[in-house]
């Protein structure tokens, strides 16, 4: 039996990959367009708000803790009895991950009444890392959680 070399396979592999690319290109293009439009819409809403303040201080998550087996597709997921999207609505970091030109820092903020750690995120104006780092350093220097010890 003759052995087929990489050189001999190259045209067939290239043709197969090319056909797969032809089939997936419209899907990739639609997703890329949708993501670009989402980023633009988020930036348009967020930009004016950020111009009013030096930084925004937000919770890192909308609940104190998720169960270890949390499913990102759970249609019955709720926070404080209200239905929320199980993938994006419990984490307020999502808009800032989408608009990557906004610098963000996450710092500890203490512990919940249940004893689990909490955090906050500090969001700055576009490309204003200095304000974000200054605010984060101030929160960490104050250490409002310094006397709190989680129960194990």
Automatic annotation (TrEMBL):
Please name the InterPro entries in this protein's record: Amidase_dom, AS_sf
Disordered: region residues: 1-25
> What region holds the Amidase domain?
32-131
Domain of life assignment: Bacteria
The name on file for this protein is: Amidase family protein
Q: What is the organism of origin for this protein?
A: Pseudonocardia benzenivorans
């Amino acid at each position: 039996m003759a052995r087929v070399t990489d050189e001999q396979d190259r045209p067939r592999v290239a043709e197969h990959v090319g056909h797969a690319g032809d089939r997936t290109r419209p899907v990739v293009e639609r997703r890329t367009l949708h993501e670009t439009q989402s980023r633009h819409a988020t930036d348009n809403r967020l930009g004016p708000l950020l111009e009013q303040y030096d930084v925004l201080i937000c919770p890192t998550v909308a609940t104190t803790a998720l169960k270890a087996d949390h499913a990102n597709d759970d249609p019955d997921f709720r926070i404080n009895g209200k239905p929320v999207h199980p993938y994006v609505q419990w984490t307020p970091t999502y808009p800032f991950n989408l608009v990557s030109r906004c610098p963000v820092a996450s710092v500890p903020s203490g512990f919940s009444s249940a004893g689990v750690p909490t955090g906050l995120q500090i969001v700055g104006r576009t490309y204003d890392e200095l304000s974000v780092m200054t605010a984060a350093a101030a929160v960490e220097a104050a250490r409002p959680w310094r006397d709190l010890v989680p129960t194990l």
